[in-house]
Write a structure and sequence with these properties.
The protein is mainly beta. The relative contact order is 0.18. The model has no long low-confidence stretch (mean pLDDT 82).
Length: 147
């Protein structure tokens, strides 16, 4: 089984540097970088190419995006050609006390019994299914109370 890449962005002070260790979703050159550090690794006014999204891998965090709601998920299968991806929803537990607010924070845990969704790569390279699309590289959950 292939190893899951972790972020190699150095965090901390100049004397105490360590790798972030979160799951990587982007590549900056040949270095894997997580979603939180993808903008931090480029120096201001640099002519270097920005980080690019990694090809999907099993275990990669992702978000299922509906019209207003988002569901946290994890990639569990990728077809041989990379045109089909199956993801499984994670359990999102709300950690704030904001009630029916748009300001929501969650903690995510894997759920082996979570609902599975199949997405196919479109001509533009994005993964989508009728009425929803897949955002690779970040895990996010949001429930819209306004509708």
């Amino acid at each position: 089984m292939p190893t899951v890449p972790t972020c190699q962005f150095n965090v901390g002070t100049k004397t105490d540097r360590r790798e972030c260790g979160m799951l990587a979703s982007y590549l900056y050159g040949s270095y894997p970088v997580c979603y939180e550090h993808k903008d931090d690794c480029v120096e201001p006014d640099s002519l270097a190419d920005p980080p690019i999204l990694m090809p999907p891998y099993v275990g990669m965090p992702c978000t299922i995006c509906y019209m207003n709601d988002r569901h946290a998920a994890t990639v569990i299968y990728i077809s041989k050609g990379g045109h089909k991806v199956i993801v499984r929803e994670c359990t999102a537990t709300r950690t704030d006390d904001n009630g029916m607010s748009s300001d929501q924070t969650y903690i995510y845990t894997a759920n082996d019994l979570g609902r599975e969704h199949t997405f196919h790569r479109r001509d533009d390279g994005d993964f989508a299914q009728r009425g929803k699309f897949l955002l690779l590289g970040t895990r996010d959950h949001y429930f819209c109370y306004e509708i």
